[in-house]
Structures are given as structure tokens and as C-alpha cells.
Write a structure and sequence with these properties.
One of its GO terms (biological process) is fatty acid metabolic process. InterPro entries: GPAT/DHAPAT, GPAT/DHAPAT_C, GPAT/DHAPAT_LPLAT, Plipid/glycerol_acylTrfase. This is Glyceronephosphate O-acyltransferase. With about 650 residues, the protein is an alpha/beta fold. The protein is about 50% helix and about 10% strand. It contains 27 helices and 19 strands. Strands 1, 2, 3, 4, 5, 6, 7, 8 and 9 form a 9-stranded mixed β-sheet that branches. A 3-stranded antiparallel β-sheet has the order 11-14-13. A 3-stranded antiparallel β-sheet has the order 15-17-16. α5 (about 65-80) packs antiparallel against α11 (about 205-220) and α7 (about 105-120) crosses α9.
């Protein structure tokens, strides 16, 4: 393993040294003044280097006349035998289908309507004003890319609403083609800055060229910040998803080719106290198809307006300079060897740089996610639910005991650097009661006891909806605990209180590698993550670490038990996928057939009492487990079918 230097300088690991901005509730003023006056107010945002907004027709013309698109059109014409004019017409049609048509009148309409909706749904929308000021400054200096986290359909509407409120330039937003199918609403979104892209391009050179040139033209000329979701889609589990690199490659390209001096990338963290799609996500994870986006579906969803969804916190992070990210990592001279307009696949060096940057940016999003007290309560109630079921005990726990444990977990979370929004001038019992009240669909409080709203006589999938919904809130704090939890699980694998440090590191390394599709774990940072986990557990009195050994202190057992319990559902999920592949005939199974087949296998085991965690029914966990087994060489895909490597699976 080599020597692990444990005590890296304090400032690298101590999360309590991180300073974060204060928040302001932007709905406070909306509740006391006219929404119409707000929507019609003077809106004069400052743009990059003072450029004037560009008409959509001019923007399209610039794209269609670009050297890169001309080159690709001629290439496609030669390869397909079609006339260049026909290919050019196809490119124009693609652009017409894709392009935004941002209009201030539509933005004003949305500003008015969203004010009404947000005041009904949410108690507050809290924004860090210092982050907005940094963003305004960044927009004037360099082209800007906004990267919000993605947990709800509400995200992109919320972003534009906030920027309009603060008189910041409105972004152009990458949206999935499925939104375009919504009559009226699709066009309204287009006129508020959305541009529509296919979920996948396959090998369509022309589509990729039109798309990339369109995004780069908007970015290079600084007409508007470009906004997209680095995770590619909404997270149904509230965990950050593995970043998708396509759009990030595109927005970094103008800097790498020397077409702009720099690009500022701004990670934005959006934290919901209660997610609108809560039960919808849980059902999707259990195999219920996602409802198709439609205008009628939007109107049917009006019943959510009668619900209370608590508060939202939106944190605009520090602008990240692509120039500073690339310094010492990328030799840009390679781009001088080929004319800029000729498309080329990114080199391994560029791919590695973009991938590492993507992980760093998602980590930046995670670090500024605001955790509400309910996140702690959901975690404690889930662990209690599983423990009671395994021991055959009465469900639930005393309200006083839950409050005591929540205070303990609050203090531990803060020591580990959680951005926790816990009202300090309110008694813990009131904080707990408020959290339970907001999420009363998921918990029951009766005769001084609290339990998940799961009835034993209910069918398994109905119980699983509640468990997976609670797990999605627990998952919001995983980024705080995942490294210490991996270390706790590695220590648990060893039997005695005194563990050889090399053995613990090797177990940590294996677990980290296995879970690298499950959590955001930066490539090549295994030793750094191990050191960080050791530092946190030593600092909080859980471990003592010498050059050779890792020792658990007397007071450390409680924290280690909590941390291992946090990771246990994921471990059992991966184990049951291995068992399924070992025991079942999977040689004729395609990847598409895998999820329904493994779900049926898991349901049978849960009903027979052989599995402890209903969370293993999550299709997200099953897909990640399969991806891990493919990466570890235990499963291969040959001609579309999954082929297991038996001796690997048996070892796992």
C-alpha cells in the first residue's frame, strides 16, 4: 500500500473551517407587495463585456454559417451521397427544433405566475445574496456556465425566477426533448430560455455538430449564461448522480481552443425540505413507469398546491475558473495542430481532465447542500425501523428518545462539516415536532411513540414506497458521512478491536471501488479519502490511529454502529444482486431484462424474511450494483447478454 501520511494539514480536511454565506428569504417581500408590479418592473441585467442581447434569428444564422458546421455538412454529404443543400436543410431543421426564443414578456408572465405558486407551496425560498453578487461580477468578466443540482422539475423554473428577482442575466437552459411535447407549456418554456435536446444522439454527427456549435456560439459571445444539469437527469434518490460529460466537454472547448480567455463555472446547490415528486420517485424506483410529461398531467398535479412543502435553500457557489482548473493539467498546444473548425475526439488527457473537473464540481454542489432536521430524523427512524423488524420488536421509538438521538446526530453532523439548518433559538423537541409534522405522510406519532407510516398488513410494495421515500431524505446527508462510513465498514470487517492499518485500508479501498457508481468519489483519490475519514474519526474521538494500527475507542462504538448501519442497505443490495447472478440462470438475460428479474428475486427473499432492507428494491441501487460488477470484471456484456464470471462472483 505504501505509507499513508495520516495528519495532512488541518485546513485540507477540517470541514468546520469552511465559511458559508448567510441566506435571505426572497418570498418575504413577495408576500407584502404586488406580484404584478414585481413582474412588470424594470429589468436591466448587465451582460458579458456589455454586449447587447442577440435576436434568436441572428444567433441561428451565426450557427448555420460557422466553419465547423460547414465542414460537417460537407463530410456528411460525402459519406451519405446526399446533396450538401439537403444536409444543410436538415441542419437548419434541427436548429429550428432545438433553439430557444427567449422573450421578456414570457419571462414576466412566469415571474407573476410563479410568485403565486411559490407563495402557496413554500414557506420560504432562501438565497445566499453574496453568491448572487459573485455571479453578477463573473458574468461581466467571462462567459458563465450555471450548474444547478437536479432533484425536482422545479429546479430550472426556480433558477430563472431567482435570477430575474436579482436582476441577473437570465440563462439559456438545456432541456430534454420530452418537455417539447407538452402543448403550449413546451413553447412557453422555449420562450423563457429553454433549448431542447435529444436524450441521446447515437452516432448522429450532424445533430452533435449543430448542438455543440449552438451552445458554443451562445457561450463565446456571452449573450446569456448557459445552464445545464451536470447529472443529466433528476436524481430519484436525492443522491448526486455520476456526472455526464457531454455538455461539460462542449462548454470547456472554447477555452481549450483559445477562443475565449476563460470560462466561469458556477455550481448551484438547491435543497428542498420536502420534494414535490417524493412518492412519484419511490414508485419509479419500484418499477412503476414515469408519467409522460404533458400539459394535462400538469393540470392534474394542481392538488399539490394544497400541500405544505416547507422551505427551499439555494446556494450559489464560488465561480470556478476553467483556466485555473486546467493549469498544469492540460497542454493546450495540441489544439494548434489541427484547424479549430475540424471536430476531433477529445484526447485521453482532455477526457481525464473533464472527468476530474466534473467530479469536483458535483462535490462542490454537495458541500453546499443545506440539510434540514428531518434528514437526521429520517436516518434515525429508518435505522430504528430495520433494527426493530430484525429483532421482532414493537415498531417505532419514544419521541423523547428520538429527540435525544437527533441532538446527538446534529452535533456529529456539524463536526463532519454538514451545512445543517437547525434553528438554534428553538427547543430540540419543537424542531423535531416541526419536522415530523411536515412529513406526516411518512411517519406516525401515537402515544408518545414515532414510527414510519408502514403497516405490517400492507403489501410489500406499499411499505417500500414509504421506506424509499424516507431513504431519499437520509440520502441527502450521505455525502457528509460516506467516507467515514466506508472506513467504519472496513473496520467492521476486521474482527478484533485492534486492526492493522494496511488491512483496514485495503478493505476501505475495495469498498470505495465497489461503490464508485453509488456515491460521488473522485477518481484517484482513495488515499486522500482514507486520510480524510481517519482525520474525522480521530478528531471526534472515535478512533486512535498509529502508523501500524487503527484502534476503536470506548466512546467510538456508538458512532461506528451508526455509520455502518448507514451503509448496510447498500451492502445488502450489492450482495443480493451477486446472489441472484450466482443462483439464477442469467445467460439469456439482457441488461433491460435484468431489473425486472432481480426485482422478482428480491421480492421473494423479502417475503421469506431472508432480507432485512426494503431499500434493496430500488432499481437505482440494482443498476449501480450491476455497473460495479461489470467494472470489477464479475459480469460481462457479450452480444447484448449478461455473462457472469462465476469465480469472481463467488469471491465477492
Amino acid at each position: 500500500m505504501g505509507t499513508i501520511v495520516l495528519f495532512t494539514p488541518l485546513k485540507l480536511f477540517d470541514p468546520m473551517l469552511k465559511k458559508r454565506d448567510d441566506f435571505e428569504d426572497i418570498l418575504e417581500e413577495r408576500r407584502t407587495s404586488s406580484d404584478l408590479r414585481y413582474a412588470l418592473r424594470c429589468y436591466t441585467p448587465v451582460l458579458y463585456k456589455g454586449v447587447t442581447p442577440c435576436k434568436t434569428s441572428v444567433l441561428k444564422s451565426m450557427v448555420l454559417q460557422s466553419d465547423q458546421l460547414h465542414y460537417v455538412i460537407n463530410q456528411v454529404s460525402k459519406e451519405s451521397g446526399r446533396a450538401a443543400d439537403d444536409v444543410r436543410e436538415e441542419a437548419s431543421a434541427i436548429l429550428e427544433e432545438m433553439a430557444h426564443s427567449l422573450q421578456l414578456s414570457t419571462v414576466r408572465f412566469f415571474a407573476f405566475m410563479l410568485s403565486k405558486v411559490f407563495k402557496t407551496l413554500f414557506r420560504s425560498i432562501c438565497v445566499n445574496e453574496e453568491g448572487i453578487q459573485r455571479l453578477q461580477q463573473a458574468i461581466q468578466e467571462h462567459p458563465v456556465v450555471l450548474l444547478p443540482s437536479h432533484r425536482s422539475y422545479m429546479d430550472f423554473l426556480l433558477m430563472s425566477y431567482i435570477l430575474y428577482t436579482y436582476d441577473v442575466a437570465l440563462p439559456v437552459i438545456a432541456a430534454g426533448m420530452d418537455f417539447m411535447g407538452m402543448k403550449f407549456v413546451g413553447e412557453m418554456l422555449r420562450m423563457s430560455g429553454a433549448f431542447f435536446i435529444r436524450r441521446s444522439f447515437g452516432g448522429d454527427k450532424l445533430y452533435w455538430s449543430v448542438f455543440s456549435e449552438y451552445v458554443k456560439t451562445m457561450l463565446k459571445n456571452g449573450y446569456a449564461p448557459v445552464e445545464f444539469f451536470l447529472e443529466g437527469t433528476r436524481s430519484r434518490t436525492s443522491k448526486s448522480l455520476t456526472p455526464k460529460l457531454g455538455l461539460l466537454n462542449i462548454v470547456m472547448d472554447p477555452f481549450l481552443k483559445g477562443e475565449v480567455f476563460d470560462v466561469n463555472v458556477v455550481p448551484v446547490s438547491i435543497s428542498y425540505e420536502r420534494i414535490l415528486e417524493e412518492s412519484l420517485y419511490a414508485r419509479e424506483l419500484l418499477g412503476v413507469p414515469k408519467p409522460k410529461e404533458s400539459t394535462s398531467g400538469l393540470f392534474k398535479a394542481r392538488k399539490v398546491l394544497s400541500e405544505d412543502y416547507g422551505s427551499i435553500h439555494v446556494y450559489f457557489g464560488q465561480p470556478v475558473s476553467v483556466r485555473s482548473l486546467a493549469e498544469g493539467r492540460v497542454n493546450r498546444c495540441q489544439f494548434n495542430l489541427v484547424p479549430r473548425h475540424i471536430p476531433r475526439r477529445p484526447s485521453e488527457e482532455i477526457q481525464s481532465f473533464v472527468n476530474d473537473s466534473a467530479y469536483r464540481l458535483v462535490r462542490a454542489q454537495e458541500e453546499n447542500m443545506v440539510l434540514k432536521p428531518w434528514v437526521l430524523l429520517a436516518s434515525l427512524l429508518l435505522q430504528n425501523h430495520h433494527q426493530n423488524r430484525a429483532a421482532g420488536q414493537k415498531p417505532g421509538m419514544a419521541l423523547d428518545e428520538l429527540t435525544t438521538q437527533a441532538v446527538w446526530l446534529r452535533d456529529v453532523s456539524r463536526q463532519y462539516g454538514a451545512f445543517l439548518h437547525w434553528p438554534d433559538h428553538t427547543s430540540p423537541s419543537e424542531v423535531v415536532s416541526s419536522g415530523l409534522s411536515l412529513h406526516r405522510a411518512l411517519v406516525r406519532v401515537c402515544e408518545g411513540r414515532v414510527q414510519l407510516a408502514v403497516e405490517q398488513e400492507e403489501e410489500l410494495l406499499s411499505q417500500a414506497v414509504v421506506v424509499l421515500s424516507c431513504a431519499s431524505y437520509r440520502n441527502q446527508m450521505l455525502h457528509v458521512f460516506v467516507r467515514p462510513a466506508l472506513l467504519a465498514s472496513a473496520i467492521h470487517i476486521a474482527s478484533s478491536n485492534q486492526k492493522r492499518k494496511t488491512d483496514v485500508f485495503n478493505s476501505f479501498s475495495f469498498l470505495r471501488n465497489m461503490f464508485s457508481s453509488e456515491f460521488i468519489l473522485c477518481p484517484g483519490a482513495t488515499v486522500q479519502d482514507f486520510e480524510e475519514a481517519c482525520y474525522l474519526l480521530v478528531k471526534t474521538g472515535v478512533l486512535q490511529v498509529t502508523q501500524q494500527e487503527v484502534l476503536v475507542t470506548e466512546r467510538g462504538h456508538r458512532t461506528l454502529a451508526f455509520l455502518t448501519s448507514m451503509l448496510d442497505p447498500f451492502l445488502q443490495g450489492y450482495q443480493v444482486v451477486c446472489r441472484f447472478l450466482c443462483e439464477e440462470d442469467t445467460e439469456t438475460l439482457t441488461e433491460k431484462q435484468f431489473i425486472p428479474a432481480v426485482r422478482k428475486f428480491i421480492v421473494n427473499h423479502l417475503l421469506a424474511g431472508r432480507l432485512r432492507y426494503a431499500e434493496v428494491l430500488s432499481s437505482d441501487l440494482q443498476k449501480n450494483a450491476l455497473a460495479a460488477l461489470q467494472r470489477l470484471g464479475a459480469v460481462r456484456k457479450i452480444k447484448g447478454y449478461l455473462v457472469k464470471i462465476q469465480h469472481f462472483l463467488t469471491q465477492l
